[in-house]
């Protein structure tokens, strides 16, 4: 009889350090740039310096003759490669043909025009400078509202109104709501363009093995399987002849939830020259050519009763799409519409979106993707309404919360909120900050001429994207669990984490279910030749959907372990716990490793049972999940400088059950950093000629460690019943909850001066003017 | 002021100015902006000549680090013993220079204009 120690300690719910961190923080992880292959060539891409221009001619002769150059390709050579795909569909959506290299016209600064391939990356770069392109410069338009004005330059000549789509959605009876209102508040609110700024820029290595008819594509992506399906299609290659590998991915934040021209271009180049080719995006290219986030101009109207009851919300979104649709570009603002009521009982809504082409790089998903915009809007509007009727921001929120009895709650936008207890995080946050006391402090400080602000946001968000009917490419996720003959466990997940810590959380789940040591579990992701298929990691879906697929695969596998264990124990009454199959009658046990070995050796098989221990599960979620929380931010505005100090930051988030509190807190920290970035510092600015004038860190302010406040994290736990783990997702919560709380706090600090709204980012110049002159901006 | 030899000496970084037609020149120049530097090739055109009081100068250059376009009117007016030269115009930059050098463009442009006029004044005096 085996003398295995029974493992009783459970790991789910524990603060376990991330298993992936040692290689990340010691610089020993393998990124695309670290891939070296024999005969490697290097690509440099020539890009448009103009926002809009016709290409009169391209002269590549000098470049082609330059030292080390293997090939030069222009749009004429790649014309037959399929277009960069847009996965989103909306009624009457106008989709410009997005060639991987420009043909006869460029549409934004950074638009790829030609590629030079050489034996050395510096030779490629030097040769790229020898390409002569004769442009006929055209008038560009970079501002979405200017692009809609009559007579504006047409981004795409075939659509002179620059309108890619109009989208309309209504719920309830909005006209009645506004007719019955005591008060209507209106505000224009912008959510500026942002550069996602993943620490690792994009990069691609393509390796064509002609004799095998096999294309290996290493790319820094959140969605390797979708890249394989789509890029194989673009190249006209059979999908099973292509392998996509996402090695270590140094952050994505949505910017790598995409299929980019360069991925197909490198495949094309490698197939043409028969050599492996590497392209690593420079930071300057990253600013110019990787998707941007946000880009909203929103017009809000909220109708309410005198007592603060919200009756209805009207919203018009002008979405700056950029020059093309990337994978999900037009779908992002529709997520804003879905979440426009926030967590409030607003039964009547009307939303209109105008998707506008501009001569800028496309916008697409960036941490929160549509929900930060919606949350910022509704949380600002609730404060503006409170100010209008003289009500406390806390009271007006309580008054309008969907109540606990109303779940599952159908919203006016067509969603069903799974579960919630909206007052709980608010109560907790108010307790932590001592709300009455800080209001008193604020009043006293004001008498002394100091400007203190108290701001809150009670956000709700939509996570676990999502049920397949609501997503462009399927919304399920898959997992395979294999117990090797030695009893070691390999988890293969279709989720493609890139910093979310799932090598740890997934191992925690598997360790608990199988009763094995966490060190016996390997979590593999990001390789289409190993992982069955997967949708990928985005939309806070990793644990809620990928983790659930894993959970179900583990249940199937446990059942099979029991069948083999019962055979070995010669018993028909067994249980499986602590890594052992136990005969319930005799108490005899068989350890997992023994069972696994027997299952592969297969000297004897249970009836109707295949050898081996492997289970795969594809899990389709029945609904999204809807996490929520309350963030409270105390600020001081410095009148003399316009600087803002964050005195305290309290984040109470409810993401359902928590697998690893350390990782959840880390996700909130990172999310808040990016929320603060938008609220206070970051903005991508194009001038009237379509030149990106914030193209490096000197002109684009990123949050840095010394700029971060201490974040006081806490949680409430309201499990979801959408999945058996009860988890909702937390990847984007910090970002979504943050920006409105910060802006509400600063507006609150200046409210006695007549300030009611300030658009982000809250730069010192803007704040100084308001603090010293008063009035609205 | 429209003598290519004099202009070539006065334009900062100018490495050659060659007449290609009436009031049209081809120019080679070097320019540095923060961490960027590069060679530009371009055209200089003189239009809207109103002798002796004003003319318009249009400069277009492209290089590895982007492009520059300048369009300005120079006015000459008698002032005591000498001539007062004033200018007004727009400059536009694009490509890498715009993306990474934005903050320094105004300062660099002013510096280059000052150098140009200082040099021109020196030429006039000599």
Describe this structure in words.
The complex is a heterodimer of chains A (777) and B (126). With 777 residues, chain A is an alpha+beta fold. Chain A folds into 3 domains: 21-29 and 476-619, 2-Layer Sandwich (Aldehyde Oxidoreductase, domain 4); 40-138 and 201-249 and 256-289, Aldehyde Oxidoreductase, domain 3 (Alpha-Beta Complex); 296-466 and 623-776, Aldehyde Oxidoreductase, domain 4. Helix content of chain A is 29%, strand content 23%. Chain A has 20 helices and 28 strands. In chain A, the strands form 7 sheets. In chain A, strands 3-5-1-12-9-10-11 form a 7-stranded mixed beta sheet, with helices on both faces. Chain A has a 5-stranded mixed beta sheet with strand order 7-15-14-13-8. Chain A has a 4-stranded mixed beta sheet with strand order 18-26-27-28, sandwiched between helices. In chain A, α15 links the parallel β20 and β21 (521-524). In chain A, α16 packs across α17 (592-601). Chain A is globular. In chain A, 57% of the residues are buried. Chain B is α+β, with helices and mostly antiparallel strands and 126 residues long. Helices cover 29% and strands 56% of the residues of chain B. Chain B has helices at 4-10, 96-125; strands spanning 14-21, 24-33, 36-50, 54-63, 66-79, 82-94. Chain B has a 6-stranded antiparallel beta sheet with strand order 1-2-3-4-5-6. The longest helix of chain B has 30 residues, at 96-125. The A-B interface holds A 49-51, 109, 129, 284, 287-288, 687, 689, 691-696, 698-699 and B 62, 64, 66-67, 92-96, 98-100, 102-103.
Oligomer: heterodimer
Q: Indicate the low-confidence ranges of chain A by residue numbers.
A: none
User: Mind telling me the CATH superfamily name of the largest domain in chain A?
Assistant: Aldehyde oxidase/xanthine dehydrogenase, molybdopterin binding domain
CATH topology of the largest domain in chain A: Aldehyde Oxidoreductase, domain 4
> Whole-number average pLDDT of chain A?
96
